[in-house]
Structure formats: C-alpha cells, structure tokens
C-alpha cells in the first residue's frame, strides 16, 4: 500500500498537468487567453502596460539591474535563447527563437522541476526512515 501511495505521489504531476491543460483548452469558445495579436495600450506613468512589453519599459525597475537589465541575467537568457534558435533553425531567427523557448520552457525546465520534485519525495522518505530508526 505504501508503494502505491509513493507511486501515486510521483505520478500525480504528470497526470494532473495535462488534464488541466485539456480542461482549459476545452473550456469553451472563445478559449481563455486566446489572442490573434498583441494588445495595444497607451503608456501609463504609474504602471507597466502592454506598451512596455511591445516597445520597451521606461519605468524605474523594481528588480536589481543584475537580474532585469539587458546586460544582466535576463539579457543573457534572451541571448542564449537566440543563440539556440540560430543553431536549431539557421537563417530563420524568429522560428528558431520560438522553438528554443518551447524546448527550454516546455520541456527542459518542467523536466528539471519534476526531477527536483522526485528528489524531494525521496529525501522525505529517507528523513522519515532515519527518524523512525532513532526511536
């Protein structure tokens, strides 16, 4: 029975996430969050809008420059994605960049998070076993 519970805990994210995606996709017409183009909004001084996304943000950054600036971690990530895109689809920059985004953020990152989840489950089991052995 314990093995079954452990297996269910390990497989739950793999089953629930696709089910949630299907539920959102089948939620009706129009589907939530469907867009044919990026929204156009005017610049607002008090907060970011789609203008900032589409044309660059002129607001005072709330994150440190080392994280959010084009020469910081954010810029390095974007440059790395563009580099991957050039390797994946030479001569087709936006196609390669999009494919690199999908690969990293829909496959590699979730796989890494799932691996960490499994490590946490294993460590939890080991800690419980160690706690039981001390008693």
Strand fraction: under 5%
Q: Terminal Cα separation, in Å? A: 23 Å
In terms of per-residue confidence, which ranges show pLDDT below 50 for 5 or more consecutive residues? none
Helix segment tally: 5
Shape descriptor: extended
Query: How would you sum up the major sheet?
Result: none
Percent in helix: 55-70%
Q: What is the gyration radius calculated from CA atoms? A: 22 Å
Average pLDDT, all residues: 86
Class based on secondary structure composition and strand pairing = mainly alpha
Order of helices and strands: HHHHH
How many DSSP-defined strands? 0
What do you see in this structure?
This protein is mainly alpha-helical and about 140 residues long. It has a domain at about 35-65. The chain contains 5 helices and no strands. It starts with a helix and ends with a helix. The mean pLDDT is about 85.
């Amino acid at each position: 029975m314990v093995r079954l519970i452990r297996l269910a805990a390990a497989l739950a994210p793999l089953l629930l996430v696709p089910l949630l995606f299907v539920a959102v996709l089948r939620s009706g017409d129009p589907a939530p969050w469907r867009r044919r183009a990026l929204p156009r909004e005017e610049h607002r001084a008090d907060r970011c809008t789609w203008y900032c996304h589409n044309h660059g943000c002129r607001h005072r950054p709330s994150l440190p420059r080392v994280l959010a600036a084009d020469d910081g971690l954010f810029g390095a990530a974007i440059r790395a994605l563009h580099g991957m895109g050039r390797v994946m689809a030479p001569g087709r920059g936006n196609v390669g960049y999009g494919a690199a985004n999908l690969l990293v953020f829909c496959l590699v990152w979730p796989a890494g998070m799932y691996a960490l989840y499994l490590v946490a489950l294993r460590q939890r089991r080991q800690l419980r076993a160690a706690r039981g052995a001390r008693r």
